[in-house]
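Bit of a strange request maybe. I'm writing a small parser for structure token strings and I need a real example to test against, not something I typed by hand. Could someone generate the tokens for this chain?
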Amino acid sequence: MAFDGITIHAMVQELNRKLEGGRFHKIAQPEADELLITTKGPKGQYRLLMSASASLPLIYFTEKNKPSPLTAPNFCMLLRKHIGTARISRIYQPGLERVIIFELEHLNEMGDSCKKQLILELMGKHSNLIFCDDRNMILDSIKHVSSHMSSVREVLPGREYFIPQTQEKYDPLTVTEELFMESVCSKPVNISKALYTSLTGLSPMIAEELCFRASIDGGDAAQSLNEAARVHLYHTLRRMMEDVEAGDFCPNVICRGGEPVEFSVLPMQQYGSEYTSESFSSVSELLEAYYATKNTITRIRQKSSDLRRIVQTALERSRKKYAIQKKQMKDTEKKEKFKVYGELINTYGYGLEEGAKALKALNYYTNEEITIPLDPTLTPSENAKRYFDKYGKLKRTEEALTEQLSDTESEIEHLESISNALDIALAESDLAQIKEELTEYGYIRRHVSGAKKKQQAKSKPFHYVSSDGYDIYVGKNNYQNDELTFRMATGNDWWFHAKKMAGSHVVVRTPDGEIPDRTFEEAGRLAAFYSKGRTAPKVEIDYIQKKHVKKPGGAKPGFVVYYTNYSLVAEPDITGLSLVEG
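Reply from user aminoacidic:
Good idea to test on real output. This should exercise your parser:
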């Protein structure tokens, strides 16, 4: 679920609680649309993450730092100049709008007190971070929006700031019963949609929750509700808004089968017994738990888009080449027929009349009579030679195609393994290794440059600990798979891999080769999850002791062979498995 007005209201209360009397201490811009602000005050030091990402706009307190570019972007430099040490005088949300306004006080070059505003708009693809003066004039924004991009509002330096009103909505904190009946209950749509399109800050999920609490089907037409149902729905809304105004929040994540599906700052009653709820002590803790991994994956997917395109293009080309080679290979199946034709012409052709167009002869291989087409301009021996030449050509083609098909199959397997590595990459260091592999095998041209590259942290395999305390390692890409299997693992360790599909090498460390059944099952789940079969309900997993896993000479990274193995079927679900950080 996206940030709605109620979640933002709860977040604003937490912001005021922690930042009251505080100051900005450090401003960083780790991403093009993201700020990381460190604050200091009577309540302590906090790190606040604000993102205007079109796909994942968010704000929450975090203890994690993020690396920043060596040269700060212009927007970040402007903020540092004006409000780098500003005092926070007020943080508020206009109504239940998806907007948070930081009112800040600072001293200018002359030592005079000045006021500024830093405004975070959490509005999906229209999200933005806007810096204004005390007259509501825009000084700059993290995203510039011109009149060519939006007919509703320009967001450019020198323009006046205002909250865009794209449709007429009412504040649910102050809406009267009469206005509610008039605006919500008279709309020609279902009642759930009427709620979130008429009232500011309500998400579809909250609208459904209101209907559920009022014992109304959210899919019913708004105009079909009788008077009693309308009044009951309005009073249900009022009770919810009283909880919001009082700050009576219960941050929670709703899960199904261990997978988070929604979050809310209010208790949700609409979900059945198949769902569970996990509570958090603060909105930030909730949002970080829900968004951190999601945000990381979204960022990495954006940064890996070029690599994905290269891999996908190469895969499509290889698959097309493979289909053509298979068709050509099927055509070579005719070669034996041509060989038999040549032999039969040599055997029975002595009695042919000159200019004959066909030869009827007994095929002594099958004891069937067949008709062999002939070229009437050629002698029988020349016709026989023509068929033997066709046989020889197809035989040579078959031999060449056998090798080419093997190479193309190997190339497809290699590219699918790289595609899987891109799916599970979580850091830029992971992408760097994948890019290096693509460069090594000629999919990306290597650029020779004298400039020194920025040193990146080396990507390492995932490290899990099983329920029984055994270390389990999972390779993130082909280079790591080779490193893990042939340098890190010892002979008695157990090795797991999804059967006949791209996936990570999974190694369970054990000194004597003995591990409990539960660890086998957990390692199988990891091998299933980090494979191309992660969306399937079950995945077949091969497992064997590492000493039986071999790497053929000249094989591509990540490619291994083994001739005897055990098998198990695992669900690609790693809920409850402990990932070791670092």
